[in-house]
Structures are given as structure tokens and as C-alpha cells.
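ok so for the tutorial part 2 we go from a plain amino acid sequence to predicted C-alpha cells. step 1 is just haveing the sequence, like this:
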Amino acid sequence: MLLLGGVFIYVVATGINDVTKYTESDFFNYRILTDKEIAQAPRISPDYVFVSQPGMGMAPSNAIIFQRVADVEPLRAYLQGLGYHRDKRRLGANEVWLQQERDGGAIFYLSFDRGTGEAVLTKVQND
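step 2 — the prediction. this is what the C-alpha cells look like for a chain of 127 residues:
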């Protein structure tokens, strides 16, 4: 009970409605804010951060942003292994990944800028 109260106070004090950028070594933010499928994504670069956005009128999202990336194929294979397929449409520079067996649910967006070496994998929860 004390731990639950501490977590509640921590979340309120850090601004539950704010976009939060953090690393895996940030124990509380990583454990509390990181979506399981984002947390288990392959690390395609040693240089990465996580971003959590609670939603506030929009669907909540979680992302992992990699720097100095040469290839995003491991992320595509990971999404396929989770049962997602790459949709024919794109959203700007983002590939759209949908679950094959469900309407609604989560959507993944994958973007990769070869020029900067930045790759972003974002999960948007639509439930």
C-alpha cells in the first residue's frame, strides 16, 4: 500500500499530463511509463531514449527514438513477429503497422531518416 501511494505521488508530482522523455536507466519512468511492446523492441543502436505521452484528448502513445541507425529491418521483423503488418498507406514519413486480426487496438508508426540516422518506433493505443 505504501509503495502504491508512493507511485501515485511520484506520478502526480512529475506531471501526469506531460510528455516525458527518459532513458532505460531512469528506473521509475521506465517501469511506470514504458509500454511492454516498446520496452521489448530490439535495440538497433546504443543511443536511444523513450518518450511517453499520456494523451490528454488524444490516444496515449509511447515511443523509442534511436540515433545513429543504419537499418530498421530488425524493427520491421519485430513488428511482424508481434502479428502486425505494414499497411499500404503512410502517415507523412511514417510507415503504418496494424494488427492483422483486429480492428482498433494499437497502431505502430515507424519512421527512419537515413540522412540523420534517426529512427522512431511509436505505439499509439486506440482501445
